[in-house]
Specification:
Layout: H1 2-33, H2 42-51, H3 54-57, E1 59-64, E2 73-76, H4 82-90, E3 94-98, H5 107-113, E4 117-119, H6 126-138, E5 143-145, H7 165-171, E6 175-182, H8 200-209, E7 213-219, H9 230-255
Parallel strand pairs: 1-7, 2-5, 2-6, 3-4, 3-5
Antiparallel strand pairs: 6-7
Helix pairs in contact: 1-5, 2-4, 6-7
Amino acid sequence: MTRMLTTSLRFIVRGLWLIAHLSLGMLLVTIVRLDFGKRIRPEPLTQWWNSKLFGIFGLRIRINGRPVSSGHVTVANHVSWMDISLIAACEQTRFVSKAEVRNWPIVGGLAIASGSFFLSRGKGGTRPLLDKLTPFLRSGGSVTIFPEGTTTAGESLLPFHPRLFAAAIDAHLPVQPLLIRYGRAPDGRNIAPYVGDDVLFWHILAMLRNPSMDVEVRYLPAIDPASLDRNELARRTHAAIEAALLPARVEYAAAA
């Protein structure tokens, strides 16, 4: 009975905390959108807001390595909607997202205000995006992409779509592979992945109910794109993340 009461109280407190934090986020969105002179850089605000998010979900984050200090392209495996907040809390970066996100309630406003770049699906959608990405990178900006194109359970890596790697080559900037690895819930369930037909609302509720979870963010050595085409650059980045993921597979198997 006491355990059930504690769980219920934790869920209520976290839920109210999340609502308050989202409200603050929307206030920041309004401030950025009203900055018609574009004097406010969104990256520092995005980093601060996301760094405050993880206590709400009881996430214990361990960061190994560090991001490249100058302009670069971060390439990460994709497990959950939480990936974006994790990376945004670790470095000042912008993200590439699918175009539909712009119309999502709350999330769309946060994505637009944070300076996200949007990719339209289908033939011809990449070139207009690259025309925006490359100048941004050449000006010293940093961008994060998830080249799997979808999320996984975190135990394996899908093939990388190489098209967006062209931005790093054209801007002559390094690509930094990044591994995101979520631990299991205390009861052994792998609840962090947001995959398939999962509904965002219910997934957030499940994360709020979960007592705690360990998360690893591992920055791997940057890759110089000089003399590489986009396919080879994608292949080398994939190999680096997959090699870092291998020990995680062994631990998952042992915990199952």
